[in-house]
Amino acid sequence: xxxxxxxxxxxxxxxxxxxxxxxxxxxxxxxxxxxxxxxxxxxxxxxxxxxxxxxxxxxxxxxxxxxxxxxxxxxxxxxxxxxxxxxxxxxxxxxxxxxxxxxxxxxxxxxxxxxxxxxxxxxxxxxxxxxxxxxxxxxxxxxxxxxxx
Length: 149
Description:
Shape: elongated
Number of helices: 4
Radius of gyration: 16 Å
Strand content: 25-35%
Mean pLDDT: 95
Number of strands: 5
Low-confidence stretches: none
Order of helices and strands: EHHHEEHEE
Largest sheet: 5 strands, antiparallel
Structural class: alpha+beta
């Protein structure tokens, strides 16, 4: 594990995104709340928050962090069709929260898949990526818009 004991404690924020692409009928079932397993969006949001808090247990060599905020947004997108997932994670400490944001998005997407797979096994999880991060010695970073390197 990387020694971060000499690093300054700063406000750290990371934002990640992903999406679950599905059939229009599947999106309709989810939005109506008719999935057999219950409230897909509510359960997925809680799963993402829980995952962010436990990232150090899932990813080898990640530091356990005291998170000060985790926000998981899930928005329907008829153009996909599917659900767009966005997670923002915050802490004040000597190391960043990129892995926590990516883990939150990944587990949120996996939970959506799990809860709706009885309707649509062909769903696809796509585009999981870091959008931005701030804090620390390296400062702010922002991903290029889609389609750019």
